[in-house]
Predict the 3D structure of the following.
Amino acid sequence: MAFALAVALPVALLGARSAVAASAADLDEPPVPAPSHPAAPPAVAPRPPAARLPAAPTPPGPPAAPAATPKPAAVASPAPAPRPAPVPEPSGPVPWPTFSPAAGGGGVALAPGRPPSAPPAPSAFDTFASRTKVGAYGQAELFLDGESNATARLPLAALSVEHRPSDAIRIAVAVQVEDGSTVGMQQALVEVEAVRALGFRAGLLIVPVGLGNLAPAPTSYLTVDRPLTDQLIVPSVWRELGVGIFGEVVPGLRYQGAVVSGLDGSAFSATAPLSGGRGDGASLAIHDAAVVGRIELDDLPPGLVVGGGGYVGGASHGIAALSGLRAGVVEADLRYHNHGLDLTAEYARLYVVNSYLANGYLGLLGQSAVPARGRGFYVQAGYDLLHLAAPEAKQELVLFAGYENVDARSEMSPFNYNPPTITGPGQLPPEAPSPAKQFLRGGIDYRPLPSVALKLDLQVALDGQGPPPAPPMVMAGAPGTPRPVGADVADAARGTTRVGLALAFNF
């Protein structure tokens, strides 16, 4: 009996161990311990148990120690709760959650195995702001003449807004203030440029003739005041209502042309023949349409731009007495800016065909009569002194000098002449051409930034200054009434020897 108990007890213990192993092997999936920290390596799954074999007989011996008996808790461990079907994932370790780069490392955690979400789309306001540009330019001037008379003025200030709803469409609007008091539109247009070689524009356009119109910002020229050629011969800033085309045929070769409203011949004058006749968007003279165009070539060599343009159109402005009055302008210019050198040259000529019609309608006599021809030209050279010391410096200190010759009344119509019986021997008829005026200019132009210029110059009138502005001489009973030109143009036309100081900006 005792022998039978000694044999049965070890066999029973071996059967209990096999039963524990069998219960562990029957689990659906061995539990995987969760990592205690994201940086810890993933837990290794336990090795599956070996195939169960029948227990071999154990030789008799002493009973096993109680410590070797498995703990009841391990045997009675409940199976883990059922989990939802897992999302198919690549083989290998489970990746840790990632973060959206747009959040700068602190964004919202994304699901494991899913790519980061795209950054949020820009708002309508952000898109509008990125395609809109706001700018402004202007200049304050101070002049001191030989008689110590000081004149301060704000000749021009402008505010512009440009918007591109798409890469092919541009909308531009600019408002300008002249003489600190007169407010008007400088331009308001829509451009469509589907291809580089051909674009279309419509609205209030700046006439592309003369450097004063091509670059109206005061930082575009070195002198305190514009050359008289860009004031008396080619009125600046000249704008008209119209439609036009533009484009770049080959790299560097550009053109533009337009059909615009014609001039108002009833506002022509002797001081600045065409200046008062500009429409400036206030009127549309369809019956006196004009044609204007320009072509230019640049970067041959780099920094050089040469071009020219022309304008021709009617100027009757619907007045029967002025039927047949026409006006035209031809102009050529050159600009070079490179290696510290700045060169500028321009020639312009105006035509008033049948000018006697304007003089008869307005009753203008003597030196107040509108001319048949006018012309002007200037050349100017400057060098940036700071370029010698620091070629890469953004600041500029330009020392410049130039010469100008201008005559707004270089030729008169023979129909304007009074009968020679009222002109004494050796005298010119009252409506004879006016003498040309010559000027020397020189000074410095300091630019701490490309958008800011501090100017100081000296203008010397080689032929003396002209008479002060006075009302025009008119014949009584004329159907029309002459209009005075602007005060700034009238003062500039005198050709006074003076010192000028200006602060200009263009942002």
